[in-house]
Amino acid sequence: MSIRVQKTFEALFALEDLREIFRGSLPTGLDEEEEKAFRAKIADLKSIIAELEEDRGTPRTTMIADTIPLRSREEEYINIQPIQAAGRLTPEARKALISYGDGYSTCDACRKPFRLDKITKPSIAAFHEDLAKFVNMDQARVVPGARRGFQAVASTLVSKGDPVIVSALAHYTEFLAVEEAGGVVKEVPLDAGNRVTADATAEKIEEVVRESGKTPALVMIDHYDYQFANQHDVRGIAKVAHQYDIPFLYNGAYTVGVMPVDGKAIGADFVVGSGHKSMASVAPSGVLATTDEWAPKVLRTTAMVGDVTNRKFGIKEVEMLGCTLMGGTLLSMMASFPAVKERVNHWDEEVKKSNYFIDALLAIEGSKVLSEYPRKHTLTKVDTTGSFDAVAATHKRRGFFLSDELSKRGIVGEFAGATRTWKLNTYGLSWKQVRYLAEAFQEIAAKYDLPITT
């Protein structure tokens, strides 16, 4: 770790130690011993700052709580890990995490009716309204990840034995949500370009009705899948679903928060997004949005009454298990939201950067793109069997040679040891970083005598 990054972490930790002194003191102020500890920590902080300014010193802290290593991936490297790119926290989110990290900090000013989406200080209630507007739906709830959005909808709509239509590229969490509800997944096959079409969806629905005698309870399709990040015809699929009176769940795990999403224009009954994957939020976090038509069902409140105490909790929403995101998780999502709302307006630029890098990779002879091309997303699956894997065949480090070469150049996030098929994501990188990334791959190719077209 560079000494500047090291000292930055140490300064942050020293400030946290200062906070701890205040947390252990009386509201009237510091006592003599606390004041002494405060002064000592200030002196320590000044020393760290001096070392930071002068780019010198030795590490004082290498572990948190003796077992957790410092994570400097985002400070020291260009990170192309496919699921991390759009989940990087904004500075505002990191500040919110520092301030609201305590477990139930969101509940400081919770008043009747004692529900998360009703809290006004901080402005959680307004945030829920803004989330719904953001994806052009009527109501929204925050959930612990997109998977909990799938789960809420599936447990509401799917009964034992009900068929549910998903993509042949569906994420495993969609399968689990259906299985937990007692349903059965039915996959729509892909076309030659690994895409799901409206026609194929209609054919699958007809097949299911023919074979089971049941109309599917739900159609759940990703806009961009996690395997290739190919674009699927969600508007056409939503239209088909509605022709059969089947509700449509739009899986926006790779879209909500990175590109404009208009749920009603798409024809979605439910929009699910991932906070930690695409909304610059702490994990686990996500969003479930729905229309007023479906809200009474998926956001139903409890009717259960205790047989001894006669207790009832009518305002609590069953599928949300009352309240969902507390503390720093939710506040990070809220703090990043202004930046997230702005960045979706620059999606075209992000796609241009993605294609710039992919073009540079394709210039290395033997490299291929398995995702649709030109790219429509920043997540891409590539095949370097004919290029870097040819080097790996005779290299003493085998496939890990590429990881070694990239790491030397400050690039991480590729699948370590993978030189055949693997995924990467350029989202959020500046043009300077994207150009550096492209040059690095071509530089490595040239080092190992792989032909490069110009």
UniProtKB/TrEMBL annotation:
The lineage of its organism: Archaea, Methanobacteriati, Methanobacteriota, Stenosarchaea group, Methanomicrobia. Pyridoxal 5'-phosphate binds at residues 146-147, 251, 274-276. Converts O-phospho-L-seryl-tRNA(Cys) (Sep-tRNA(Cys)) to L-cysteinyl-tRNA(Cys) (Cys-tRNA(Cys)). It comes from Methanoculleus thermophilus. Its EC number is 2.5.1.73. One of its GO terms (biological process) is translation. The modification N6-(pyridoxal phosphate)lysine is found at residue 277. This is O-phospho-L-seryl-tRNA:Cys-tRNA synthase. Keywords: Protein biosynthesis, Pyridoxal phosphate, Transferase. Its cofactor is pyridoxal 5'-phosphate. It is an enzyme of class 2 (transferase). It catalyses: O-phospho-L-seryl-tRNA(Cys) + hydrogen sulfide + H(+) = L-cysteinyl-tRNA(Cys) + phosphate. GO terms for molecular function: Sep-tRNA:Cys-tRNA synthase activity. Homodimer. Interacts with SepRS. Pfam families: SepSecS (PF05889). Belongs to the SepCysS family.
